[in-house]
Amino acid sequence: MHIFNNFICRIYSVAVCRLCVLLMILVAQQVHARDAINLPDFGDSTGQLISPEEEQKFGQQFFQYITQKAPLNRDLQVQEYIETLGQRLLHSSDLTKTPFHFFVVMDPAINAFAGPGGYIGINSGLILRSEHEGELASVMAHEIAHVTQRHLYRAYEASKQLSIPATMATIASLLLGFVSPELAQAALIATQAGSIQYQINFTRDNEEEADRVGMQILSQSEYDPRHMVSFFQTLEAAGRLYGNGPPEFLRTHPLTTSRIADAAARAEKFPRFDSSDALSYELIKIKLELAEEESDKQSKSTEIELGREEPKREPTKEQRLAMRYKQVLTDFQNKRYTQAREGIKVLLGQFPRQLLFVSTLADIEKQSGNLKEAAQLMKSAYQAAPKRLSSLLDYAQILVETNQAEQARELLQLAVWDGARLPELFKLLAETYYKQKQVAQAHRYLGEYHLLRGELKQAVTQLRLAGKTAQDNFYMSEIVAEKLRTIRKEIRDRREDS
User: Fold this and answer.
1) Between vectors from CA 303 to CA 221 and to CA 144, what angle results, nearest 5°?
2) Of 97, 221, 341, 406, whose CA is between 20 and 30 Å from 52?
3) Euclidean distance between CA atoms 492 and 264, whole angstroms
4) 126 with 4: CB under 8 angstroms?
5) b/e per residue, 42-78, with b = 16+ CB within 10 A?
6) Cα 44 to the center of its chain, rounded Å
7) What is the largest CA-CA distance in the chain?
8) pLDDT tens digits, 172-201
9) Is residue 14 very low, low, confident or very high in pLDDT (cuts 50, 70, 90)?
């Protein structure tokens, strides 16, 4: 009955309680939770809780910390899927004014969380445990609601005296489980019981509010809100598989029967929809499943076993296709290129516009040494979806490998000018400049690569090298100098705040 809190925003169960307590400890003050909470209206943008500038900086600092500490998904096709799904929920719900960023954490635990600045993380274990794209969408809609309702900022409003780095490190640590339960428990004992009880009730209210708003987002995006209820029920049943009861954080903040009943009753007021991209959803699950099998995480977690149960129903057409795709990828990983090629061509014959199939065949041809065929396939994928960075990077990479670095550079540079901020893009762009013996530009874009990854010292090193090799290029020297001033100021701010 209590399993839903295992994946749906750990920060809003035990984590919120731990967060508030730990932040109070860090600032060495006791603030009564009742006085700290100021409930804003839906979509509050007045800046009463936090200014837009602070929110942006908090979000960037938070994600940099996450990037350095968590095993984030590096498969661009998986990232593009989760980003596309998130943006669908936002655009259909008229929430595009608030910036959101969606990413996948390679962790078998059934979990999802919303951090500062609209950064929403979904664990791979949660995606694998879901049975329908609508269930995954329901989790993401719930997390979006936590952001729009500004639950996180209400939780630490009383501790704004903390520095940004300390705050973001604390939040990220709680979300990712870096803070020991023993520390949080000791803090709980030292805190007034009445205040903690109020905070528990407050977080339960947050969850119910996020359920309600999340259902509205789902319906406006033409997903059936009943999928939220079905995920409640599926994971409630899975919770009974724990031999010694649910994990500690579920015992602290249980999912109540009334919450499930309330959600079920509310869902019946919405129209029914069935408009998901079932094939892409199943294919992405296969990619994540293989990635987790490769990392051998299933042997380290009880929760991953929950995601490996045999289907209780007859597999759908999309699930059968996904299993065939899994066999292709397995053959490919084991260098059985002939079998992999034959299998993916059959799938492509049925779905010639499925870019995952096109890119897989291109990878097979590339690893088989057929660069010309691979380049043509990657070019076709890029032309079919020029805004997809996975297609762009695949095509640009093979252009570099076939001595067409200038053409690759032009494509990558256009993406940068169009606002792309993917670290791997800047790294490949630097490689194209090296190939063309433009060393200063190469160092400059390597600096950008490290900066996007939050590696400030490495960024400074590369930018200094860019400045030294720029010679009489005044324009380049000024760009590098300004970037260095900005980064050094950030480094000083971090030292002062820490």
Assistant:
1) 25
2) 221
3) 52
4) no
5) eeeeeeebbeeebbebbbbbbbbbbbeebebbeebbb
6) 24
7) 71
8) 655 555 444 444 344 334 433 444 444 445
9) very low
